Amino acid sequence: MTFYKKIIATVAMIASVLLLAACSSTQPKYDANKPLGPQINYTITGIDAGAGIMTSTDKALKAYGLADKNWQLQPSSTAAMTSTLKKAIADKRPIVVTGWTPHWMFTKFPLKFLKDPKNVYGKTEQIHTIVRKGLKQDDPQAYRVLDQFHWTPKEISSVMLAVNNGQDPADAAKDFVKKHPKQVAEWTKGASHVSGHPKLTLTYIAWDSEIASTNVVATVLRQVGYKVTIRAMEPQPVWASVATKAADAQVSAWLPNTAAKLYADYKNQVVDLGVNMDGARVGLAVPKYMKNINSIEDLKK
Q1: What are 104-122's pLDDT values in tens digits?
Q2: Contact 219, 247 (CB under 8 A)
Q3: pLDDT-derived band of residue 20, with 50, 70 and 90 as boundaries?
Q4: Which residues is 101 bridged to in the sheet?
Q5: How far from the centroid of its chain's Cα atoms is residue 237's Cα?
Q6: Could you tell me which of 234, 241, 232, 278 has the C-alpha nearest to residue 256?
Q7: How many CA atoms lie within 13 A of 27 on its CB side?
Q8: Where would you find the membrane-spanning parts of this chain (predicted)?
């Protein structure tokens, strides 16, 4: 991206955040007796334009006929979306957001997913660990740890919530590892401590869940003796870095839907170690006080 394009993209993002803030400050409380669309200007509050959930939401607008009724998806950022959500919930105002679990917002706020009868967002997803070819031969102890890494949405959410509350991600990861010695023992079972501090690089997308999982795995690998570097990237470079061996692994491949295209592009150039977390989910979400809005179909009422 050129310098001028970066400026344009930044200005567009700032404009979208200001628009979200302006809209939220003028909305009255949610009224279940009135159609939802006019109450929120037919707007779904989204995140980064390139995110997989945004592509799925564009498809949902068409599949459910919402695009024909002037519904639109407003891109912003994860931070702007959760900030707008927090303010709306504090005032019990209506809001529809792009949501996913694991994420701390489902722990901190009273949210519910909207039913998706057309299955646009797909069923519950799994998060996979993807490593570079040759890692098993080059660094068998790291490979073993990565292969045995598995945790739950509740566990990852606890790390995300700690980070959201102001704790440094590396410190939050260290605290989790310290408090879960039995789980760490399962992840490191059969892995010998390595000498010489061999280097490893993990790449990740700078989303809350990926920040949490990558820091936790990095902490465990450091305990085994590795010198671990973690690097945040956009989704496509994350996969490309592992495929080209510029990085050793990533633990944030949402499958079979969110990362479907990237998986198809790179599956023959990487090694899929399988699921490290079950129960991931994406879709549209609303506060629970919007009791009569339970399905994406309800947005048309």
Answers
A1: 999 899 999 999 999 999 8
A2: no
A3: low
A4: 281
A5: 16
A6: 278
A7: 28
A8: none
